[in-house]
């Protein structure tokens, strides 16, 4: 059996699995050769697969392709709207705890979604983005990222569960574009409106293009311009 996930996320993953599980659900079951977090019986005698994926959504693609062939699949992806950083020594002794100034939002989904954007049109796939409060435990072991000065993220713990956003079809993602976005636009203009770095706006545009929700319409200098394609109504 194949498993997707990382040990560093075990506490957060386990807490969210408990939060989403309902009576009658089966946990950690094998489906199509993979271990699925939650398998929920459906009224038609089938089953729905629910996967908690805290990061690296793109790594799920082989697993999703195997599951989607026979089952509806819901992917739950948490984004930390509020975060606390708890520092611990190499032996686990507490050092300090502080609140991070960073506040995640649903738009932070797009860097994670790049590897799955082309799959979001699958009729069996839905995505739920849930805003959470979390505590990250940083361990002073000299093995972490240079950005954290070699502190490792030893664990992530769930503190609270907040607002959820549901995406059942590509058109649902279009609602994340600013209502006052004038067309045609470039990624710099989009970044200014969503108050985010340009690299996030670029990831957002990439994903929306992969879903058929944006198309290139020309250039303004070196900047590529985008528009939403016209809606075609089938009679």
Structure report:
The protein is α+β, with helices and mostly antiparallel strands and 235 residues long. 21% of the residues lie in helices and 36% in strands. The chain has 6 helices and 9 strands. It has helices at residues 10-20, 61-68, 109-113, 170-174, 187-194, 198-210; strands spanning 26-31, 34-41, 47-52, 73-88, 94-99, 125-139, 152-167, 215-220, 223-227. Strands 1, 2, 3, 4, 5, 6 and 7 form a 7-stranded mixed beta sheet that branches. The protein has a two-stranded antiparallel sheet with strand order 8-9. β1 and β2 form a beta hairpin. α5 packs across α6 (198-210). The longest helix is centred in the C-terminal third of the chain and has 13 residues, at 198-210. It is flat. It starts with 9 loop residues before the first helix and ends in an 8-residue tail after the last strand. Residues 5-9 have low confidence and may be disordered.
Notable features of this structure?
235 residues, alpha+beta, seven-stranded mixed β-sheet, 6 helices
Question: Helix and strand layout, with pairings?
Answer:
Elements: H1 10-20, E1 26-31, E2 34-41, E3 47-52, H2 61-68, E4 73-88, E5 94-99, H3 109-113, E6 125-139, E7 152-167, H4 170-174, H5 187-194, H6 198-210, E8 215-220, E9 223-227
Parallel strand pairs: 3-4, 4-6
Antiparallel strand pairs: 1-2, 2-3, 4-5, 6-7, 8-9
What is the H/E string? HEEEHEEHEEHHHEE
Q: Segments where pLDDT lies below 50 for 5+ residues?
A: 5-9
Helix content: 10-25%
Summed up, the helix count is: 6
Instruction: Report, as a whole number of angstroms, the end-to-end distance.
Output: 46 Å
What's the mean pLDDT score? Answer: 91
């Amino acid at each position: 059996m194949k498993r997707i996930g990382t040990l560093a996320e075990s506490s957060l993953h386990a807490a969210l699995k408990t939060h989403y599980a309902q009576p009658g659900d089966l946990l950690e079951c094998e489906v199509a050769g993979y271990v699925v977090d939650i398998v929920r019986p459906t009224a038609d005698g089938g089953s729905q697969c629910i996967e908690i994926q805290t990061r690296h959504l793109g790594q799920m693609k082989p697993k999703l392709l195997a599951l989607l062939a026979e089952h509806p699949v819901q992917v739950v992806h948490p984004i930390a709207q509020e975060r606390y950083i708890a520092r611990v020594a190499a032996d686990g002794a507490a050092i300090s705890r502080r609140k991070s100034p960073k506040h995640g939002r649903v738009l932070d989904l797009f860097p994670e979604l790049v590897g799955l954007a082309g799959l979001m049109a699958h009729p069996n796939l839905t995505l739920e983005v849930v805003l959470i409060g979390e505590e990250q435990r940083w361990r002073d072991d000299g093995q972490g990222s240079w950005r954290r000065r070699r502190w490792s993220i030893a664990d992530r713990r769930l503190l609270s569960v907040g607002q959820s956003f549901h995406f059942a079809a590509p058109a649902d993602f279009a609602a994340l574009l600013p209502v006052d976005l004038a067309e045609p636009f470039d990624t710099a203009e989009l970044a200014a409106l969503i108050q985010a770095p340009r690299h996030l706006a670029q990831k957002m545009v990439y994903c929306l293009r992969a879903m058929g929700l944006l198309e290139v319409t020309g250039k303004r200098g070196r900047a590529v311009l985008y528009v939403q394609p016209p809606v075609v109504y089938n009679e």
